[in-house]
Amino acid sequence: MQHPIGIGLAGLGNVGAGVFKNLQANRALLRERLGLDLEVRKAAVRDVARRAEEGFPPELLTNRWQDLVEDPQIRIIVEVMGRKEESLQLILAAIAAKKIVVTANKALLAEHGRDIFEAATLHGVPVFYEAAVGGGIPIIKALREALIGNHIISIHGIINGTSNYILTRMREAGLSFPEALAEAQAAGYAEPDPSFDVNGWDAAHKAIILASLAYGFWIPPEQISVEGIESLTAADFRFARQLGYAIKLLGVIKATSSTPGSEIEVRVHPTLVPEKHVLASVNGVFNAVAVHGNVVGETLFYGRGAGQDPTSSAILCDIAEAAEALANPRRNLGFMPHGLYGRCKPLDAVLSEYYVQLWVEDRPGVIAQVAGILGELQIGISSIFQPESPDEGAMVPLVMMIHTASHAQMRAALERINALPCVHRLPRMIRVEHFS
Ligand code: HSE
User: Fold this and answer.
1) In the predicted model, is pLDDT for residue 391 greater than 90?
2) Rounded to the nearest whole angstrom, what is the distance from the C-alpha of residue 135 to the centroid of ligand 1?
3) Is 0.85 surpassed by the pTM of this model?
4) Is the CB of 357 under 6 A from ligand 1?
5) 170 and 294: one domain?
6) Which of 53, 80, 130, 232 is a Cys-bridge partner for 16, taking CB atoms 3.0 to 4.6 Å apart?
7) What is the pLDDT of residues 38-47, one digit of tens each?
8) What pLDDT is attached to residue 411?
9) Which of 365, 367, 362, 354 is CA-nearest to residue 387?
10) 415: burial class by Cβ within 10 Å (0-12, 13-18, 19+)?
11) By alpha-carbon position, which residue is closest to atom 2 of ligand 1?
């Protein structure tokens, strides 16, 4: 047996500690499977004394990440600091020093994936990032390897566990958004600052990574459309259920046709999903990603999208792949750019079906006014309902399901509907996905 392959661990927070623990626990298994031994040689942390008190071997600890890059015995650097500038500096320095990088940093990849992989290509060094999307679900490897022979027609992903927990509780227990968020925080699911979980941007970072991998170019974050779950109401869940739908925060990624050169859609938003579709049954903190390839058809990947052990499982997979790559240099460095696709569709041109909910006065002619505006803009209503009200003139919800229309059509229609005197409160619009 050769010398162990040295690993530098940047970060010993929840995920880093999990990698350390699971690497020790499964070191012998990995040695048998890889024929290579893996050993953590150093761990860079902010507070050395605190980590030593927690029981990490003091001789491994340093407060300088540069020590990992400068150690010639370290061949693989695992970045789980989850910071911005500092993580980017470390990754670029590690690549320049020809160390293979493993990172779980989804925000960094979504914003700087192109720079990171330009550096990786320049130096011929792989960068692996299985833990950046879907926690323990091996979706990156699936897209990069198992589905390599497919044009990807679409990806629909529940890729934020916290928001899925909140939506599950709103649906199951009729909770309001603030009540469900408080419950998620009390259960330890939401981050201390849950903004990225609920405003859609955590899922958006992951959607950017999946889309970039599927279509061979780094999607500019400013070209995608992102909506969070903060404004969903208990009434939306009641109406959706009456119509046979669940509401999920989905990352929706599509090529507008399976022909190379077609435009790409990348969006994250609350979505009505038919109750009979499998994604409607993905509940609690679980994640799931449905990938439709033009050869394979529909596939589904399901599992825990966060947490110490699932995330470390993904990082162990990357470390193992990194160790193999050291022994057998390779062309695919973790992201193969190509020019078959390359443009994102402008949001206004994106087509969808919609759920629209208005608060209107219950009096003659109201539905005609609303339907008139939709008709003038060539927007078709596929169904409509208004619960019976006690008094004429009372305010009532009006719920409509809308046939396929562009975002621009709907924007124009809702502006005009909102200006009607019989409409109280801002109209609410949620996209509907029927899956092909
Ligand atoms: N906060 C994320 C989630 C997990 O709730 O899914 C890390 O990406």
Assistant:
1) no
2) 8
3) yes
4) no
5) yes
6) 80
7) 999 999 999 9
8) 98
9) 362
10) exposed
11) 160
